[in-house]
Structure formats: C-alpha cells, structure tokens
Amino acid sequence: MILIIDDDRTVRLSLGLLFRQAGYEPEGVGTEAEALAMVREVCPHLILLDMNLSLTTTGRDGINLLRKIRIFRPDVPVILISAWGTIPLAVEGMGLGACDFITKPWDNRELMAKVRKAIDSARAAAAQTEPKQTLDEMERKAIVEALRSCDYNMSQAAAQLGITRQSLYRRMLKFDIK
Predict the structure, then answer these.
(1) Which of 117, 118, 29, 36 is nearest to 78 (CA)?
(2) Cβ(27)–Cβ(4) under 8 Å?
(3) What is the pTM of this model?
(4) Residue 146 in 3-state DSSP?
(5) Which of these CATH numbers, 1.10.720, 1.10.3470, 3.30.200, 1.10.10, describes 135-174?
(6) What is the distance between the alpha carbons of residues 22 and 95, in angstroms, rounded to a whole number?
(7) What pairs with residue 48 in β-bridges?
(8) From CA 116, how far away is CA 122, in angstroms rounded?
(9) What is the full per-residue pLDDT of the chain (178 aa) written as tens digits?
C-alpha cells in the first residue's frame, strides 16, 4: 500500500489514480491525525508526504509529521512532495530520513521511477536485516526513544507520539517503562 498524505483532495485522487494504474494499492489521507492513525494501523510500502498540510507554505507541517512517522515506521521509505519546495527544505527532509523530494506539478514518469526505486530499495534492505520485531517491541522502542528525545517529559513525548499523556502512561505501565 502507498500512503498519500496531502491536504488537497484533488492531488490525492490524481496520485491515487496514477498508482492504481501502475498496480499499486493507494490510500489517501488529508490531515496529520489521519496520517498518524494510518501509520499506526498499517505498514505502508511507501509514504508520499506533502510538506504543507495547512495554509502555510513553510514546509514545517511536513517536516514535523516526518519526524513523527519515523518514530512508528523508521524503515518505510518517504518521498516528500511540495509546490513550495526549496533546497534547504529538501535537505532537511532527507536528513530526517526521507528518500527523495519531488516538486509539484510532478512528472508522472519521474514520480513512478522514484516510487519503484524507493520500494525496491526498502525491500532489498528489509531482506538483509535481522528478524522483525513484534509490534509490542516496536511500540516499546518508539516510546523509549520519544521519552529520551524529550528528556523524559511525558507531555512532550506524548505529543511527539501523537497520543494523550494518559495513553502514554498506560503504555509505560504495560511495557514496564520507568
């Protein structure tokens, strides 16, 4: 499944049609909350992430969401897409683990080539890695990493994970995190 994260419904529909015609199973969401819920539920083969999910054109929406996605799905390839792309924004996104950057309007052939390359590279890397972790192990690791990155501030860690502080506390008890 290819997850398309873009606030513009027309873009989601256009990309969905392109991916469907290429034999992929696309799924589109328009908000950060929907994106995080989807990333928690399923592991997409690739994420296409718009950098601007609001009326701003700074790209901070996409950068912040990329950080959160990386907590839950560190190995899923992410291609950033933006009509307002700049080189510093692309460099920052790549530094946070995005595998590529595309500007709108996109060229269908170029986009599909980048999508295929990203998915093929991720599959090859997964085939060479150690045995997969269980979902509980992955969740525990994500919580510990979020807590460390926020200097053990539970409110900040919960916000970074996209859950409530109460949910974080329950999960900490479940995994015996102190």
Answers:
(1) 118
(2) yes
(3) 0.68
(4) helix
(5) 1.10.10
(6) 29
(7) 4, 79
(8) 10
(9) 999 999 999 999 999 999 999 999 999 999 999 999 999 999 999 999 998 887 666 667 888 999 999 999 999 999 999 887 677 777 888 888 899 999 889 999 999 999 999 999 988 887 776 666 788 888 999 999 999 999 989 999 999 999 999 999 999 999 989 8
